[in-house]
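Methods, example record. To illustrate the input and output format used throughout this study, we show the complete record for Inosine-5'-monophosphate dehydrogenase. The sequence lines were provided to the predictor; the line carrying structure tokens was produced by it.
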Amino acid sequence: MDQADPFGFIGLTYDDVMLLPGHTDVIPSEADTSSRLTRRIEVSTPLLSAAMDTVTESRMAVAMARQGGLGILHRNLSIADQASQVDLVKRSESGMVTDPVTTTADATVAEVDALCGHFRVSGLPVVDQAGVLVGIITNRDMRFVSPFEKATTLVRDVMTKAPLITGRQGIDPDDAIAIFAQHKIEKLPIVDEQGRLTGLITVKDFDKSEKYPNATKDPAGRLRVGAAIGFFGDAWQRATSLLEAGVDVIVVDTANGDSAGVLDIIRRLKRDSAFEAVDIIGGNVATRSGAQALVDAGADAIKVGVGPGSICTTRVVAGVGVPQVTAVYEASLAAKPHGIPVIADGGLQYSGDIAKALVAGADTVMLGSLLAGCDESPGDLVFVNGKQYKNYRGMGSLGALQTRGEKTSYSKDRYFQSDVPSDDKLIAEGIEGQVPYRGPLASVAYQLAGGLRQSMFYTGARTIAELKEKGRFVRITAAGLKESHPHDVQMVVEAPNYRR
Ligand code: XMP
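The corresponding predicted structure is encoded as:
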């Protein structure tokens, strides 16, 4: 070690600092929380759900995008399963579905039922071998088929047969709404001049657009979604399948992004024109030089966090990491001059930490424990002493490391242990636990974004750019932290945004 002042570099985290209040003429409801996720993608709420198997699968990703954030699908599952989750999100909501799920007249009602259940849709267009629309089958058509007859009843016997009310390609949304109203229908198949099905517009999609005006969407009106990959083994194949399924953002998700394998796959993805439409996030790093390496490799956003997570043990197992506010600040010094957004990943406990992360230099934050208790996270409710919890585990926990595909564990390469031959030789860097049940994501996200708006009011910031520019920190002591939390009273009613 040749550092001149080896212990002079102090690392601070969320609980070490507070934001100074400043003159304000902003009320919280006026604050605009939109921010940059990557070089090309904006979000209206700067929240991401973590790529963890107890946090983000398709349900969470749909819910996050509807709230104006983004979900990153975890990679502790087969390539086919992860790609199918991307597909589910991309199909969940759309201006127009360009490749609708279809069935044929010879399929059985049971098969249609299964498809509708999987894709959470209420009916399917029926096409012939040439793709020509020959009918439509919806819940209404299947209602009177008894459960015993579903496996033997053919679609042709119950479907609504062509000619159907259809729309032409490029139809104006207002014209589609008029057709729905005039004909009292809920699905409008779009056909070309030969009568071949080219798309589908549904009433539900219009309803959802009204209900979630700030949703994170692609130019075709579909919800956006991200997905994690590694850098080892079949990582390239995974990236390709995710791309084919329509993923918007790929996150090269590892515990140490400043490493040859990670930088190499980012470079390759950025060079390959097939991936032109997808933004690539690299991580994780916790230093300026680590962030610089990702910038140089071409990453479209830098994910920061080595060991801050609620379930992480990296800092005690390896003795490595940087307290998160300092890590984010240092990384931003490398990323900002290049206009590359920074993601503060892990360690956030309260809504107030979001503004602290943004002022330190982040553009968005990634959350694990704060979201793992939501209805939309994978896993069932667990009852402990009459209270409701959900399981939450680190991707470096033994349980996650031992989840395996055909040949190896998916999670092992996140911790650079793909070469470890047996489970008893794994070095865990996370724990398995439980978090309190928190209800639907919509209420949790509302409180988190609401907390951020309060921060913006106190600091006099109308936009995230202003918050980052005007925000100033004061360092606090242990006494200051104690004073910051409720003290000297017995809490009798839990607030929706505060738990100890
Ligand atoms: P929070 O604090 O939001 O953190 O629960 C979520 C982030 O933690 C990271 N992560 C891990 N880090 N060991 C680690 O050192 C682990 O087992 C582990 N699992 C997840 C990850 O960056 C996530 O977004």
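Annotations derived from this record:
The mean pLDDT is 93.
The pocket of xanthosine-5'-monophosphate is lined by residues 50, 52, 284, 305, 307, 309-312, 314, 345-348, 366-369, 394-397, 429-430 (CB under 6 Å).
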